[in-house]
Amino acid sequence: MKDILVTCPPMLGQIDRFHDFAEDLGLKLHPAQTTQILSEAELIALLPEYDGWIIGDDPATAEVFEAAQSGRLTAAVKWGIGVDNVDFAACARLGIPITNTPNMFGTEVADVGTAYVIALARQLFSLDRGVREGGWPKTAGISLLGRRAGVVGLGDIGRNMCTRLQALGMEVMAYDPHVEGDAGIEGLTCAAWPVGLEELDFLIFTCSLNDKNHHMLNAETLAKCRAGIRIVNVARGPLIDEAALFAALESGHVHSAALDVFEVEPLPAESPLRGLGERCLFGTHNGSNSVDAVIRASHDALTKLASFYR
Fold first, then answer.
1. Most buried one in 6, 218, 221, 278, CB count within 10 A?
2. CATH number for the domain harbouring residue 148
3. Model pTM score
């Protein structure tokens, strides 16, 4: 039986569902005590005691893998599709087999992104807060029919996001350097970033993070955006320069933002974004966390991890 450390919060939230499935594969699960990530130092101390690792958004650095390999670790799986926190090159150098679980959450994260678009359009969060404070607000939002949205990234999540927005009657333009034409989605147009930002009513981030798109939404690109734009991020926090976004929200150039992800997670208590009240809607990097999707991805992660020991 291989001892497996689990540090992925959505999987940890349903860990009791997976013990029997794992045991049938020859794996014994050990849940970490974490709500988001373990630190590099914590991982270096823990991982040498385990044969395998199911990784969340933890700093899976070369130093971590080197320390882990000095002990018992011989394989790992990154739970989910995003791998920007994982040093795959270090794993290759050390001979540690590793993979991820792609194409698991396209519909779930797109559902959340769509919910954020609707919430920002109709200012539903403002109404909720007003009622909770004892009022009875009648805030006027905007209609979605005929509005123009930009979707950054046309992977599994982005494609599902586009079709949902189209179903709401929105015109959709996508940004993805690897896609041309309509990407097989009727009515979709594609453009090179940041062309056309001045035409958008909504901007939604659904792409992976890499060294070329860090802070792609910054003071310069925000200045190109139409005044009153609404911004949604269900991808990765560092795609957006939060200091620049705060300034644009504070000035009113950006109407509002819904952020499921942040540059630092959990969102620091001192973040100025917290002081913007109803201008910001916050999540907890939780877009993929449905019961169904977590079961699907966790079974896939366990099956892939077990295959490395055969």
1. 6
2. 3.40.50.720
3. 0.92
Domain that holds residue 125: 106-282
Q: What is the DSSP letter of 80?
A: S
Among 52, 55, 64, 7, which Cα is nearest to 25's?
Answer: 52
Edge to edge, what strands does the sheet with 75-78 contain? 27-31, 2-6, 52-55, 75-78, 98-100
> What gap in Å lies between CA 165 and CA 144, rounded to an integer?
9
Residues designated catalytic: 236, 265, 285
Say yes or no: 139 and 93 in one domain: no
Show the tokens assigned to 228: 């009153």
SS3 20: helix
Residue 182's pLDDT is what?
86
76 burial class (0-12, 13-18, 19+ CB within 10 angstroms)? buried
Q: Cis link prior to 194 (omega < 30° from 0)?
A: yes
Report the domain count for the chain: 2
- The pLDDT tens digits for 13-43 are 999 999 999 999 999 999 999 989 999 999 9
Residue 33: φ, ψ to 5°: -95, 95
